[in-house]
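RECORD TYPE: protein structure
NAME: Serine protease
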Amino acid sequence: MKENEADGDVTRSEALESVADSPETTRDTGFSTVAQHARGESNRGSTRRSVLKKSGVGAFALGTLTEKLGFSSFDAPTRIVATRSGLDSAPEVTKKVPRKWLEHQRAVRRVTDRLRAAWENAPFVGSVAYAPTDRMEGGVYYCQPEISVRPDATAAQVASLPESVANAGVEVPNELRVSDIAVRRMNGEFALADVDCYDEVTDSPFPGGLKIKTATSGFYQMGTAGFMVYDDTAEYLYTANHVLMDDCDCCVADSRAYADDDTDLGYVADGHKNHDWCVVERTDGGYGNTVQYEEDEIELHGWVTENGIDSLQGVTDAIRQQGVISGYQTGTLKGDFASFADFNCVSMLGNAVKLGFPDYAREGDSGGPYWWPNADGNWAITVHTGFEVGDGTYSGCGHSGKKGNPAYGYPVWRVFNNTNYAIS
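PREDICTED:
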């Protein structure tokens, strides 16, 4: 179920068993259903989750343990795993949060899925998600369901939307502590963001955050390198699939990535066209475990979990972004379980995170990393896919194009849960 992840500070195997990606691959929504990988995220081998299943790890061990230890009180604090790292998905950063907040967040995920089934087919609805409120307890914000209507939605259409979960025709869980439904008008239609203000190139190891492109001459697409990931056989460059692939393809033979100085960075070895991620494998040279930007660089140490993302919702300037057009920016997580679709091939149906900035994201930022910096390190959240198109365009550094806010991306915890890729 989507609403899972670790219920407190638990063992690695129990937590991994509980963070399964949901079956969004078969869900019909207002966006056309697109064929996706039948199982998991990747074309490669067995996933981390399947290996754990074969080893006999039980999905219900945690619930039994917590009851025996007496941690079932609704008002008691609990501890969540906020970040993980490595091929064993080891817990790294944990946070103490109110148990009633955690139970509410799980409930709001379930409610959001039910609202999506009821409303996302409406032609005037762009996305159903959940988003942070201004209600905070124990250092974390409660979230509420949110329906985003398209820019041209009429007043009558907006008035037809339910104001609360109770009158939305879906079950109201007892754990739900904020039952109002927020309605927002989108800033513009969805658009992908694949033109460079920062041209420094490092040959090997090649870091994230720099310009990448699909060819050395003639017409080419360009975007931003994400970050290094690895499995038990090789290192890869992780970025947005639509930056390197055209015509809704993924992992096509002879598809390659190049640095701005035409250095060959490798071929697209794996990915998912609908969730808009891919990995590039290099036969000569390597990738650096850093994200580089004009003023400095940072090293990544792992990734943020689903509960970790929820604990950061609404916290001003908690996250960072690097894109070759927009540069280095601070931002805020604005929601999760959102849908983003370009009506062609990218279709994150209820699985995207939503990110906001004081400024904008811009075309050319696609594939660039978002991360959470804290005292223990830097933790990957997603890479940039697209945004709601804003008014006007940007111009500078020899390029011009669309800009927009908020931005969207597919969270890496979902990818890592269903593949053998990792960051450490």
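COMMENT: Helices lie at 12-18, 48-54, 61-69, 99-119, 155-159, 241-244, 306-312, 412-418.
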